[in-house]
Amino acid sequence: MEELLIELKNTYGKEAEFRDGQQEAIQGVLDGKRLLVVQKTGWGKSLVYFLATKVLRKRGKGITLIISPLLALMNNQIESANKLGLNVETINSENAEDWDSITEQLSKGNIDALIISPERLSNPEFKKLLMDRLAAQISLFVVDEAHCISDWGHDFRPDYRRIVDIINRLPSNIPVLATTATANDRVVNDIKKQLGDKLLISRGSLMRESLSLQVIELHSKEARMAWILQNINKIPGTGIIYCLTVNDCKLLNKWLNENGISSESYFAGLDAEKKNEVVNSFMNNSIKVLVATVAFGMGFDKPDIGFVIHFQRPGNIVAYYQQIGRAGRGIDKAYAILLCGGEDDDINNYFIDSAFPTEELMETIVNTVMQHPGIRITQLEKYINMKPSKIKSCVKYLLVNGDIYVEDKQYYKTTRIWKPDLEKSREITNIRKKELLEIEEFSKQVNCYMEYIANILDDTDAKACGSCENCVGHPLIKVEVPEILVLKAQQFIREDFNIIEARKQWPSGERIDGGNRISAELICETGRVLSNYGDAGWGKLVSAGKYKDNFFDDKLVEASGLLLENFIRDNNIKWVTSVPSIRRPELVKSFAERLASRLGLKYYDAIEKVNNNRCQKELNTSYLQYENAYNSFEVSHVYDENVLLVDDMVDSRWTFTVCGYKLRKNGSGRVFPFALANSAGRNGDE
């Protein structure tokens, strides 16, 4: 073991010492063992496999193959490896132009470690490269974030199942190292079951001494916004605020910036260039706070994060522990503040219902593939009323499980007999519900918060932390929020509005007027939305008007009039029409007529609902929403001047797209959509 200590000190200085368990884990790998390391974030799991790699390479051994789930994590790992003088490369979706040169360097033995995502293993060309050319060169196989292997885990990824097949085909003398910071006994046992009984377990304490935890119940969104504004600059350092939805991410980021606090938002929909710009600002301490969904997670190793605030309660303790673990890695004290709100459970229950593919949904896909051999994944959306993300998740699971196969992007049923495991599907859902109850219970704790977390994670070293609000006996940060700040936040929400971006093409494979793209002169203009559905201010009034009163309050007419006055003038809009409804014929029409009067414009019924089809909110794929809208509306007589097209809700934008297209086709001027509320992105998204 002296060899390992020398390597450590040569790299990190004479004062460097191994943390508890690191040296033993490295030695286990060098002895050819299969090992699962469960250690808290910041413990140094990557040091184990990179130092082992350095020793193995010095002994003339082959490469280390590392399976890592995120590109950001790969980049961070490469930086860590460079400190040890290792030449590490990655093959991923964003560097296809480098694949040939990397493959050549691999064949020459010039690369010490190769990092790939589990999704690479589904690529037939890469799988052939791996099994034909790399298998004989592998001297260490590493699975990072190994909890993703287990479908009992909070972050199950079907592609991780492919790893198990490859590991089982490796020579028995090749060491395997699996690492995670978030695995309870159930997940550990499942990983052991899949990787073999010879798997050794190395577990350390999950207690985070540098973290001070506090829980604050603030039911309304505006109260939480006010609390953050009042306290954010009192907390030292930079930090992260986690939101469950993209809408809240955008709203909170805008609120902070408009009140003089430097902030950026991060979520899955950002383009790669903007993501890099935001991450660099955060890593360089150019901003005070990053407002993010769970899309900002693994792979961002910033040791001086001073706080993590949750705008809503996460869905389980494991996710919460993982997220707060980003703070306080290299500093003595950091804060983890959980703000609990009224919408938390609704969002988290949506997550539970939509996360793991149910057996019923997978059976629907299996039957559809059997009925339509060679079907493409975009075509499945025409036949199955399921969100595209869920279709892809089900397809991936079925591929990994061997129930279907793909050739040239076309899907076929295998000869394997489909046997749905309904019991397991129900059991996983029940576990998720139980986990939600656990974090609800956490927020009501009167004893140590960290000890509660450690017990849930089956940490045998669980003990009172001595630094959370329950241990010290008083709030770490003041809970009370001045009413004037709450009113300011409420007014901000009321004055905030969203843009309706125009759709510019029909669904994939659909051709109208000879093409898939909508002709430029038939596309809707950029529109406006008064509120986010259900939010404080106008959003709640819209909800009450639609589902309780069957009438939209005159306050909404006045608020919409104020929002649209300049918009109407600037775009020379001369008349108003509305999207009709058979179920509630007067609801939107009455509002649109009053709005037209408020704006001094004429109102005209130009659109007719010809089919009493399903509500758009009941349909989950873009194609079905488009088809439903296209077959529902017809346009007859119109004015040739610019028009404001009014509806109560906007989500998929297909109703506006279709009605706007048909208005323009029939000779109207430019069409400007307006909706009272945006209902898109209000459930759990990234």
From TrEMBL:
One GO process term, biological-process aspect: DNA repair
GO CC annotations on file: bacterial nucleoid; cytoplasm; replisome
EC number(s) given by UniProt: 5.6.2.4
InterPro entries tied to this protein: DEAD/DEAH_box_helicase_dom (IPR011545), DNA/RNA_helicase_DEAH_CS (IPR002464), DNA_helicase_ATP-dep_RecQ (IPR004589), Helicase_ATP-bd (IPR014001), Helicase_C-like (IPR001650), P-loop_NTPase (IPR027417), PRTase-like (IPR029057)
Keywords: ATP-binding, DNA-binding, Helicase, Hydrolase, Isomerase, Nucleotide-binding
Enzyme class: isomerase
Molecular function per GO: 3'-5' DNA helicase activity; ATP binding; DNA binding; four-way junction helicase activity; hydrolase activity
Catalytic reaction equation(s): Couples ATP hydrolysis with the unwinding of duplex DNA by translocating in the 3'-5' direction
Family, per entry: Belongs to the helicase family. RecQ subfamily.
NCBIfam families membership: recQ_fam (TIGR00614)
UniProt protein name: DNA 3'-5' helicase
